[in-house]
Amino acid sequence: MFVINLLAVTIILGTILTVITARFRRLCGIIGVLSVGIITVILFYVAYRVFTVGPMTLAQPLFTIPSLGAGLSINVDYLSAIFLVLIGLISFLGTLYSYRYMDIYPTQSLGRFYPFLILFIGGMIGVVSVSDMFFFFIFWEFMTLTSYFLVIYEKEDPIALRAGLKYFIMTHIGTAAMFIAAIMLQTEVGSFDFGLFREALAGMVASHPVRLPIILSLFLLGFGTKAGMYPFGTWLPDAHPAAPSGVSAMLSGVMIKMGVYGIIRLFFFLLPSSTHSFAWGIVIATFGAISLFMGTISALLQHDSKRLLAFSSIAQVGYIFLGIGTGLAFLKTNPVLSAVATLAGIYHLLNHATFKSLLFLNAGSILYKAGTRDLNKLGGLYSFMPITAWTTLIAGFSISGMPPFNGFVSKWLIYQTAILGGIKIPVFILFGLMAIFISSATLAYFIKFFSTSFGGVMSKKLEASLRPGKDVPYSMRLPQNILALLCLVLGLFPWIPLMISSGGLTGSVYGTVVNQLPAIFGNSVYGLTPVLNGGANSGVWLPITGTFIFIGCLALAFIISRIGKPQRRTVPLWNCGEVYEPDDVRYRAASYYVPMVSFFERLVYPELPTLHIKRPERLHKGLDFDHLLYYPLVNLVVRISQKFRRTHVGIPQVYMLYQVIGIVVLGLIVFWLSIG
Amino acid sequence: MIVWLILLFIFPILGTLSFMAAFPWVREKKASLLASFWGMGTLVAVIGLIVTSYGKLPSFFLFGQMPWIETDVKLFGFIVDPLSLLMLVVTVVIGFLVIVFSGDYLTSENREHPTTSGWDRYYAWLLLFIFSMVGVALSPNLLQFLIFWEMTTICSAALISFHEDEKSCRAGFKALVMTHVPGLFFLVALALVFVYTGNFEFASIGRLTPTIKTTVVIFFLLASWAKSAQGPFYTWIPDAMEAPTPISAYLHAAAMVNAGAFLMARVLTAGFEIGSGVGLLIAIMAIVTMYIGLFFYFFQDDLKRLLAYSTIVNVGYIFLGLSLGVMGSVVGMRGGLLHLICHAFAKTILFLSVGAISYATGTRAISRLSGLYRGSPFLAVAFTIGVFSVTGIPPFACFWSKFFLIVGAFELKSVFGIILGVLILGESVGAFIWFIIVTQRVFFGKETEANATLQVPRVFKFVLGVLIILTLAAPLFGMRLLEGVK
Question: What's this model's pTM, rounded to 2 decimal places?
Answer without folding.
Answer: 0.91
